[in-house]
Amino acid sequence: MGDDVASTCRHSTTRHILRESESRLMHTSWSEIDTYRQCAFKHHVRYKLEKEPKRTPRSLQIGSMWHVLMELVYDSNDLGAPVDQLKQWRSEGQDPEYVELLTWMLDGYYEKWGVGDPLWTGEVEAIELEFEVELPDIGWGPLNLKGAIDLLVWIDNRLWLVDHKTGAEKPKTQDLELADQWTLYVWAARQLGYEVFGSVHSYAKTRKLKRTMTLEERFERFPIHRTDHECEKVAREATIQAWAAKSENGAPRSPGDHCHFRCDLIDVCIADRRYDERMAHQILDTEFKTRERK
What we know:
By secondary structure, the chain is of the alpha/beta class. 47% of the residues lie in helices and 21% in strands. Strands 1, 3, 4, 5, 6 and 7 form a 6-stranded mixed beta sheet that branches. Strands 2-8 form a two-stranded antiparallel sheet. The two termini are 19 Å apart.
């Protein structure tokens, strides 16, 4: 089954797609912009050399599988559907550690939010909403932003953009207020005509401790209103960074503490820095594969 797990569940979802073949525009994504923000060298390898690890990192695999379960929760009208999906993964030989962890996460999610879950009882506007919208014109040419929104749902007469996120550590509210991804996605949804009030970061913990953990430790939702000024500012800044990423910038490195938990190119980076490009490419050729274009 492997890395295709994220595509397991893609049925009867609401989609709004402007395809690149129709728009004939260059495009970018939040993932590309964020990668460039982290390190121009990492962006060079991922988006210009088009290389990625042969094996999907555990954190990304768990996150992808959790998204599949959440889509089933809110799209199938059957709370047993995610349980059936877990059984299917188990029968197909998916990593037992992953299935056990996700079973624990799903059980806790149901216990925490229950049948009165406002995301469940609210009116769903869209699920897995794929989009492509044109970014603000800064004089460098047209550029489209592509992405997917997990859930748009009406709660108390307000439309919220919900993003399902997993992680070992619960984020802080201020960090989420500064995070640009959801602000940018709210901006994109508004470009499509959705009157989105703000974003909800729906967090689920992936680190299971030996002691009994409270549901409050494991799950939390962070609703944040996103203002028009904020959205426009972030969209413009994202456009500037996206064009900078696509330019010939020499791919300088940005070494720091983030390298150890956000980068799988450390060996490549050190080889290229310490020796030459040939050594780096030997590692890329043996341990990485050509990235699939989306």
